[in-house]
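Each record in this resource describes a single protein on a pair of labelled lines. With that in mind, the following record should read easily:

===
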Amino acid sequence: MTDTPSSTRLLARRPDERPPSDRLRRLASGSLALGCLAILTVAAGLSPSGEGHGTHEQLGMDPCGFLATTGYPCATCGMTTSWAHAADGHYVTSFLTQPFGLVLVLITAMVFWFALHTAVYGSRISEAASKVLSDKLVWFGVGGLALGWGFKIVMMA
């Protein structure tokens, strides 16, 4: 065997020589892809409520207590309905129902494809995406949820 730099040796590994961390990353990515697919599949199986909220009741959940008590929608009001509309391909209706719901559906679909690609091909695209988003993700989520909630309050008023 010739003396080659370690970086060349890593690139020349056979698939059965992958380090355990690579297998673990692929397994975790496959699990993440299955989780995203499960959520998207459930959304596709729901019939969106014409009221713009309440679709979650098809999953056996109680009606929103916050809405019943205050008369105002909760921060996640309309999310399930928005997801159901998006799963049916009605993106404008999904956005008008709960804007952040549509954003979350699109992010979940994107994460599904990145995670599936990583699981199947061993790609590191998911790691690169998570490094770019990690610092901003929490603030994006909080801000998006707050804006979506404000939009929902205005639309239901």
User: Anything to note?
Assistant: Residues 22-156 form one domain.
